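[job 0412] stage=fold_complex status=start
inputs:
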Amino acid sequence: MEMFKDFLLHVSFILFPIFLYHALWLSRTPAHFPKTNKLLITVFASISSALCIMYPVGSILDLQTGLQSIPLVLAILYGGYTAGIVAILVSSTVKFVMYGSFLWVGLIVVPIYFFIPFLLYRKWRQYSKQRKLLYGVLIALSKGMFIYIGLLVVSLIEYSPAFIMQQKLLELFFSTLYYIFFLVLSIYSIEFVKENAQMRTQLVQSEKLTIVSELAASVAHEVRNPLTVVRGFIQLLFSSDNTKEPSTNKDYKNLVLSELDRAQDIITSYLDIAKQNYYQIESLNLSKLLEECASLMTSYANFKSVTIHQSIEPDLYIQGDETKIKQVMINLIKNAIEAAPEHEGKIELFASKENHRICLYFVDNGVGMSESQMKKLGEPYYTLKNKGTGLGLTVTFSIIENHHGTIRFKSSLQSGTTVTVKFPEDTRRK
Ligand code: ADP
Ligand code: MG
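[job 0412] stage=fold_complex status=done
writing structure:
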């Protein structure tokens, strides 16, 4: 019974912070999936590890199971090097204060112990869930192996080897099993919690999109046709008597036409959202498409005195819908041009292949955005421009998602923005 109690205690020491992280951080902003909070991870891992040290499981075969290293492994894998190292330092200090273990032992043990997690951290995010669980088993096994070798060395030096090994082997076997179970359970819980939070974010976003597209379907068609007619007649009206036309009339004409065009733009964006479901997927040469869009936007850029530079690797292929991808590129280039400062405005377009993904970069030296502004990107109607629609990025996000791609913004106020778009490479084409 005592053992069962200890067991439950450890389950709560390790799992409780995971769910608390979800409650405090991941569900804070339902419309956006938040960045990793490394500070919170460091604090939770340190406390959790310290608690495991203070209340060790002690009754199975006098087992020192050492579960305190699980939060540390998790801190490295999910929080990174700094989070891991800080948590390890805190945990070592607690251990030293409680049991007075020699610090120099820690100095040798720590690097070997946490070698694999440190190695895995860089790519950890990209692994699938199954793979992460598998690596969890591997990390636990490697720890068991390490203890086994350590025991072997100690017993060879100090005692009769055969005797010690017999005693310890069974213990080691159980403690490794126990460790595997806990580590895999923790990784599984974290992934579960994360998936849940991500799903909810997606749900909120698609909910918004559905509202917009329903509106779109009902309004757009009705309004577009009369608008086209009005535009035609106005053009006719103003062009009939050109010579006597006073200059104010000309101004009115331009104003009316530009406002009509704007209305058309809004409706087109609405229709694009409503038509999101029709995709014609084919193999696309993204390099050519980007060059095409860049030259398409050159006149707009010239008008704003902005220069466009390109560095595009040839023959980058993806599977996608040409019109939709073009729309994405034009939206992003247009935003970059509109953000860029007059006269010194400069936009750079890069395209390359990295790890089987086709990466596009749209870099501008424009006004940039603050953190809170960036969080709102993609929300329908979010715009800071006088004549903006706030629909460009909504459409862009949804198209990219439908192509299984990702989009990321990196920006700082006054110094510019880098938009990174990644698509899976078309592997069939080789
Ligand atoms: P719109 O361009 O009609 O305003 P978007 O959805 O395209 O709508 O963009 C929404 C907002 O995001 C813009 O109003 C602008 O404030 C901000 N934004 C987008 N791209 C950039 C960029 N490259 N630099 C600075 N701000 C940007
Ligand atoms: Mg825009």
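[job 0412] summary: Strands lie at 282-285, 306-312, 317-320, 345-354, 357-364, 406-412, 416-424.
[job 0412] exit 0
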